[in-house]
Amino acid sequence: EKNIQVQYEEKADFLVEGDREYLEKAVFNLISNAVDYNVLDGRILVGTEAGQCVIENTGKQMEEDELLHAFDLFFTGDKSRGKKGNHMGIGLFLVKKIAELHGMRVILENGADGIRVVVKK
C-alpha cells in the first residue's frame, strides 16, 4: 500500500543465540513499526555489522521526550506519526525485554530521514 522500498546491507553477520520464537516476535515488531510509521514511497534499511543490527525507516522523527519513553509499557507517543489507534504501546516494551533476556540492548534514535533502531550485543 505504501510502496516502501526495503534494502538489506550485510557488512558482517549478526548472530544471536536464544529463543527463536521470542526473537522472531521482536524482529517482527521492529519491521512492523518501520512499515506502520513510514511514509508513502518511503524506505526501510536493515543492516547488520559486527555486534549490531540496524533498522531505519523514513518518516516523521520523534521528540526527545518520546524517544526517552518509547520503551515504556503502554506508551504510544505522537498519534500523528502513524496509524491512529492501531498501536497499544506494548511492542517496543516487549522488544526491549526480549533483547535484554538475550544479553542485548536496543537504542531508538532519530536518523537522517526518520527513525533508527539499533540492536547491540
Strand and helix layout:
Elements: E1 5-10, H1 20-36, E2 43-49, E3 52-58, H2 64-69, H3 91-101, E4 105-110, E5 114-120
Parallel strand pairs: 1-2
Antiparallel strand pairs: 2-3, 3-5, 4-5
Helix pairs in contact: 1-3
Write a concise keyword list for the protein shown above.
single chain; 121 residues; alpha+beta; Heat Shock Protein 90; 5-stranded mixed β-sheet; 3 helices; 5 strands
Q: What does this molecule look like?
A:
- With 121 residues, the chain is α+β, with helices and mostly antiparallel strands.
- It has one domain (5-120): Heat Shock Protein 90.
- Helix content is 28%, strand content 27%.
- The protein is built from 3 helices and 5 strands; from the N terminus they run βαββααββ.
- The longest helix is centred in the N-terminal third of the chain and has 17 residues, at 20-36.
